[in-house]
Design a protein that fits this description.
Blueprint (H helix, E strand, L loop, with lengths): L2 E5 L3 E8 L6 E3 L2 E3 L13 E7 L1 H11 L3 E5 L1 E3 L2 H13 L7 E3 L5 E8 L4 E7 L13 H5 L3 E4 L6 H13 L3 E4 L3 H5 L1 H8 L4 E5 H7 L5 H9 L4 E5 L5 E4 L4 E4 L13 H14 L4 H16 L20 E3 L1
């Protein structure tokens, strides 16, 4: 097994679940979430306190897969931070490199979930996870990871550059799943890609980085920067290459979605967890899709995280 460090956000997720009061209202081409009158009181069916954020979700998957999982993230010494730490310790994630904010509370997401349709709207207070400039790339010397899995740092390209350069200098491989703010810094993002070993984006995100409309076009252009590229396309599956093999793949299973929160994190961390365990590129794509399917079938961004020991059924995947 491998030693994998996750770099990303750590949040408490508070779910407000209801089967009818949060139904979306369609206005023109848009859907407004929740038929709730201003000033009214609404009884909800369920409340659930979970943990999430890209750093937390990925670290939990790596630990469940049997890897040595380390998380670098920001929380505060408050009840939400304590809840996150308890869950991570229970899952076997190394939290000794977590940073504690004295000026902001632990980040929290309020997730309004329509349990009947699986639709949700997320209200997020980033709090301690808003800023990543206090992260020290020198921690990588002590951690000595085989892989570094990076989600969004809220557009802090300077911090990303420091971590990427340090990782490459000590032989650590990098998997990168950039967020919205990183994608707005196109030139700086492309400059970082030369250090990336695996890039994960969806079709819309890929088109923000390189020219192209078709998945094959986008894959070709991104592969000029990164050896292994995975582009997902929602219910259509996706496309991927590692330079030696290329695949088109569908979804693992058409499962009713209870909660889509964490689906992207599940795909990315699932892929790396399986690949770092010595499995083939093809099988790692299948596992990633299965892990994402398992996550959306349960409420919570990491409750359904697989362990790598499951018996998986075949899924549509074709070598191209």
């Amino acid at each position: 097994m491998a030693r994998i460090v996750s770099l990303g956000s750590a949040l408490q997720d508070v779910y407000l679940v209801d089967h009818d009061d949060l139904a979306p209202t369609v206005i023109g081409e848009e859907a407004i979430f929740g038929k709730v009158l201003v000033g009214s009181k609404v009884d909800i069916d369920k409340i659930a306190y979970e943990v999430g954020g890209g750093g937390v979700n990925s670290a939990i998957e790596f630990a469940r897969h049997g890897h040595e999982a380390v998380l670098i993230g920001n929380i505060a010494k408050d009840s939400a931070g304590d809840a996150i730490t308890r869950v991570l310790n229970k899952e076997g994630v190394d939290t000794s490199y977590m940073n504690f904010s004295s000026s902001k509370s632990t980040g929290t997401s309020i997730i309004l979930l329509d349990s009947k349709r699986g639709e949700r709207t997320i209200l997020t207070y980033r709090g301690a996870s808003e800023n990543f400039s206090n992260f020290s790339a020198d921690d990588l010397d002590l951690i000595a990871p085989d892989w570094m899995y990076v989600t969004t740092t809220r557009g802090d390209m300077d911090t990303l550059l420091k971590f990427f350069e340090k990782a490459k200098s000590i032989g650590t491989k990098i998997m990168f799943n950039p967020g919205v703010r990183e994608l707005t810094e196109t030139k700086k993002l492309i400059g970082l890609l030369e250090d990336v070993d695996v890039l994960l984006v969806n079709k819309h995100e890929a088109a923000q980085i390189v020219p192209g409309v078709l998945l094959t076009e986008l894959l070709y252009h991104l592969h000029n920067y990164v050896e292994t590229v995975i582009i997902t396309d929602g219910s259509m599956g996706g496309i991927a290459t590692n330079g030696e093999e290329s695949f088109r793949f569908g979804i693992y299973q058409d499962t009713p979605i209870k909660d889509a929160t964490g689906a992207g994190d599940a795909f990315g961390s699932g892929f790396l967890a399986h690949l770092a365990a010595g499995h083939s590129f093809r099988n790692s794509l299948v596992y990633a899709s299965a892990n994402s399917t398992s996550i959306v079938s349960k409420i919570g961004a990491n409750h359904g995280a697989l362990t790598g020991n499951e018996q998986l059924h075949p899924m549509p995947i074709q070598k191209i």
